[in-house]
Amino acid sequence: MRAYRSICLCALAAVLCGAATLSANDGIPAAAWKRPLGKPLENAGSKKPAITDKHIDDGYWQGAPVGGFGAGTFSRTYRGDFARWHVKAGVHKYESVPSDQFGVYEKAEGGDSVAAMLYAGKLDGAPLPTYPVGEGDYASLYPKSWYDYRWDKLPVRLTLEQFSPILPNNYKESSYPVAVYYWHAQNRSAKRVTVSVMFSWANMVGWFHDPGRNFANANNLSNVNRFQSAPIQYDGKPAKMSGIVLDRSRIGDVQVEGDGQFVIASLDSPRTQVSYMTSMAAYAGVQSAWAPFAATGKLPNSDVAWASSGEPLSAAIAVTFTLEPGEKLTVPMVLSWDLPIVEFGGGRKWLRHYTDFFGTSGTHAWQIAKEGLEHGQEWSNAIDAWQKPVVEDESKPLWYRGALFNELYYIADGGTFWARPVGAEKSTPPVFSYMECFDYPFYDTLDVRFYGSMPLIKWWPEIDKQAIREFADTVPQDLTQKSLVEWETQQNRKLVFRTRKAKGAVPHDLGNPLEDPAFYINQYNWQDSNRWKDLNTKFVLMVYRDFVLTGGKDTSFLKYTWPAVRESLAYLHQFDHDGGGIPMNEGFPDQTYDVWSARGQMAYCGGLWLAAVRSAEEIAKKLGDTKAAEEYHALFEKSQKTYIAKLWNGHYFRYDTDSQYREDIHADQLAGQWYGNLLGLGDLVPREMRLSALHKIFDNNVMKFANGEMGAVNGMNPDGTLIDDKDNEQVQEVWGGTTYGLAAEMLSEGLREEAFRTAWGVYHTTYETKGYWFRTPEAWDITGHFRASMYMRPGAIWAMEMMPPAK
After folding, report:
1. How far apart are CA 169 and CA 150, in angstroms?
2. How many other C-beta atoms lie within 10 A of the C-beta of residue 150?
3. Are 731 and 773 in contact (CB under 8 A)?
4. Which residue in 90, 175, 257, 526 has the most C-beta neighbors within 10 A?
5. What is the DSSP letter of 698?
6. How far is CA 589 from the centre of its chain?
7. DSSP secondary-structure letter at 751?
8. Residue 125's pLDDT is what?
9. How far apart are alpha carbons 524 and 528 in whole angstroms?
């Protein structure tokens, strides 16, 4: 072991254990990621200059999303504006909406009042007082986040806690389109203080029907708002719910995407009084509500309503309460929406999963909001109980415990749809799918979900198993339509075509939102994925993963997928051109590194093959197929000998046998053994070889790249220098998701300090230096330029939590 490594590892304690902490008195877990409200970031990362302008770079003004799985999501940034909208499935919109705001009014007895919009920025077109930058903190431990307002001009300290009911092993409430906002107020003064919080919202019905990245095509025709009040049960006592329904005039039920309702509401009680303005012109809405609110802390209870002839509308509510010196009070608000229909480019209509519980008419936003008010505390307690054993496990770094939950955001926020086609029987399992990313908009990209779906099998296993069944159903399909292969066409300067999906090939994806996802699969055409060498093996490994990690008893799941496992391995085995047992790479990028060519036997794909064949052997044993088990055992032994003989160089496994990259140190070379350790498959290669390779990777790909502060670079020269290849951007990139997978493999081999140092580089870049929070990219280089923000693969961090202890 080199001396500098021991020096670095001795210094790791401060790095690994360091993370932002908040006082326990705030009610915010110490593991929550924190940033001063509205504080700009210096030297933030940005998209790679070579990437087309179509790629997304919204900057670091981001925050954790709210919204249930498949219900649509949106985010309020850490400066306080609502700006990111993933409400139409598969579509990313980023535009700050001035009408969507929180405001505060406070007046101490005998003193002057103070009022401000709770936005630490400048409101365009609305010269209103805003909140000072840095006077408090934003914190997040998804699905919760907090805005801790600590401005000395406000005698009552306010902490806003927000969440949606994303709950483990929950397939009902986790789909709800609702956000709960708890205002925790504490009077720090020696005087009685009157407090009021205002919540304004635009009528956004008709804003989420088109694929544009902003609201230029919003349809406001016939939108109408109305005040509503009704009795509820709150904290076990009778109370009243009051709020605004933001609706549309229509005949009958909702028929088109984007139509439906929003509701903003709060609690009317002896302690809290709700006032309101039902209808305002949207972009002047906050300003028109501001004068009465800033003067008295109340709105004029105006219920004037009209149907819009095209002008945008907004509404506002305010909740007023009084606190004695030292007194505390929690005041709830809710925001709900009922937009039941999802429609993709192919025209097929789907009903979101939450409609199973609220109906399909698109007129139940009030009922959904009522659920949020009545059950919000129950949901909050359930989230805390779920997170508690993880975030309080002091044997692991604090930053890591926070990152685990914050990286869960993408399961809800990744263009996710959880729905059933209109007209389908209720017994038809709903489709749950989320995208690789918005720049590469493919649903359930298989080579990526191999990494990124770890939290699904950990916390929502039935969702993941259903997705694997759907992939199994695709294996025998033969889609003969031809499409252009873009990479080879560019390389060869002539048209090259591929079959949409070959029989026996596992598809790259389950479709694109511009077509007909889940029905029209394998839309990816950068490469010919029918000839990829990692898709079929990853499918087999995820089948066995989902069986093992859900208790190892669901043989019906194995029986359902077994024919596809057999067919997919037989299809891939045809590429064993030299009889050594291992499918050979063919000199183009035929695996997840899709601009990084490989030829001959490849450590990455070959290792996945070894793991998949071993998995097939174990599946055969579980199903009593002795003959198949013997066949796969013999194939494994033959392939293992070839793999070691061809690729082991005495220190690590070479990238491949025959390409220009053959001696490169590939950070992901042990991906097969990673899954092998996770699933108890035993030694795919001898342990001493694995340890040697991992030390080589850590010394070079981690510590010799950006001083170990950015994760593991994909490739390094054997002498530890960066590979200079202008035609291959991926060799010079760090991939956050594969780095987390590497760290998980290190943990399983007993290299704990190396594992957490490796993973910390991804955390450090994402949450501390480059501003990638809640948009974790697929890749970045040493300059901080990134590619493909809001990416699925970093969910692999949960593999670190799932690995069995090292022997």
Report:
1. 36
2. 15
3. no
4. 175
5. I
6. 27
7. -
8. 65
9. 8
